[in-house]
Amino acid sequence: MERILVVDDETDCQTVLAMYLESQGYRVECANSGIEALSIFENDPPDLVISDVMMPEMDGFEFCRRLRNTRLGQLMPFIFLSGQGEIESKVEGHSMGADDYLVKPFQSEEILAKVKAQLERSHRIHAEIVRLLQNSTPVGVEPKVVSVAPPPPPLPLTPAEERVFWEVIQGYTNKQISYRLFISPRTVQAHLGSIFSKLHMENRSQLVKFALERGYKPPQS
Q: Is it the case that residue 148 has pLDDT exceeding 70?
């Protein structure tokens, strides 16, 4: 079940949206401000974020900007749902890194269509990563050449981190890795942070590129 984080200081709007999305089969967690939402994201990243713009403590624009500056938040589907319908607000929202921008009051069918579209886009990105990995040829190795290139050096990772590494470069999300390895999403996130640090990477895309260029392949089960 995919998890959506709804960020809005208006309790009525938050409740209505959460109830509707839950009725459509999603799990929903709510936050009243950008600060609270960042804390939730750091502990257990969702599959998609829906955020208001005008909120106390930290508005939606700043929340989106900070989210995009994190390793795990760069590819997170993000939708603004705001009472501010001016073109300037929409432009700023997209410039902060939002994938979509809807104006209140909203039609339930429209928000559902946007959510489905963004989640499907996220799934396609991960599927494309898997396809590229499966069809790649290690750098320095010509197709149809009998000679074997030297194997890449061992990864400077613990066995647990290495298992997460192989899952990530195959395109699995944190939630999928959690299910596949029987560990919590928080543990997956902790291992991923350690992997980024040890390999001097900033995000998943760099990790996949690193694996492709160095010739790392998941072990055959």
A: no
